[in-house]
Amino acid sequence: MTKLADYADARELTINLTLRELRGKYKRSVIGWSWSLINPLATVLIYSLVFSFFLKVTPDGGSPSGLKVFALFLLCGLLPWNYLSNGMVGGMSALVTNANLIKKVYFPREVLVVASLISWLVSMLIEMGVLVVILLLFGNMALPWIPLALLLILLQSVFVLGLGLMLSVLNVYFRDVQHFIGIILQIWFYATPIVYPINVVERAAADHHFRILGMGLDSLYHLNPMVGFVEAYRDLLYDLRLPPAGDIIYLAAWSVATMTIGMIVFNRLSGNLAEEL
Question: What's 60's DSSP letter?
């Protein structure tokens, strides 16, 4: 109850820290928030040239939408990935970059991670809004699916916040964490169906019958929660259909578990933050 009271008292601080993050994100930039659109579009252009033109990766048409545009297929997976990556990296550095503030005054330290995540959430919502507009221009009526997409974003936010809380406090004690996470994110990116359709993995699993811990390649691949998140976004916005209920339950379980573990680790290690920083 004391923790909840602290969070309630820190609402104004959370808002101010979030506004500071938003203002500082593109400070002294000529085109400002336009970079939040240019960066993913430039990435889509590069990956489209490499994977669609040179490597000839061709995803199946959306079912039942019938949409078959590689750039839009890529965007539906790239935006949630960017949200995960930016949220993790931003949350991981939130305590270290605000060391002076932590040393001067008491407040719930979790607020710093929350403010960082909300700033990236704003970017995610802007990018998703632009994606929906582009989908509409291509004749993909994604408007009815927006409420479900927002719920999915909320679910992913819980997942990312749990990771951010855990990494932020670990990074204070072990600065190697930031370098380790950089490697993990590279591996995680290609272990998620962002630049290739998931049927590539399913075909590979059918051709190679090796097993680890009694599980086949396909089963191991689907343990990755980002596989479920990316496929759920594509189901809603690209295919225009409901994701399987089992997948949503699995993602909810991952989100709750990650948030719980993140809070436990943060509370255990946050007592000596001022001294460690």
Answer: P
Cα separation, 8 vs 99, in Å, equals 23
Number of domains in the chain: 1
**CB of 120 closer than 8 Å to CB of 83:** yes
> In this predicted model, what pLDDT tens digit does every residue of 3-12 receive, in sequence order?
666 666 677 8
pLDDT(239) > 80: yes
In whole angstroms, give the CA distance from residue 120 to residue 264: 23
Nearest to 168 by CA among 96, 100, 98, 116: 96
Distance between CA atoms of residues 80 and 194, nearest Å: 10
Question: Which tokens hold the place of 90?
Answer: 């931003």
Angle, alpha carbons 249-3-271 (nearest 5°): 105
Which SS3 state, helix, strand or coil, does residue 31 take?
coil
Give residue 163's domain range: 2-276
Q: How confident is the model over 192-218, as a mean pLDDT?
A: 78
The per-residue pLDDT for 6 is 63
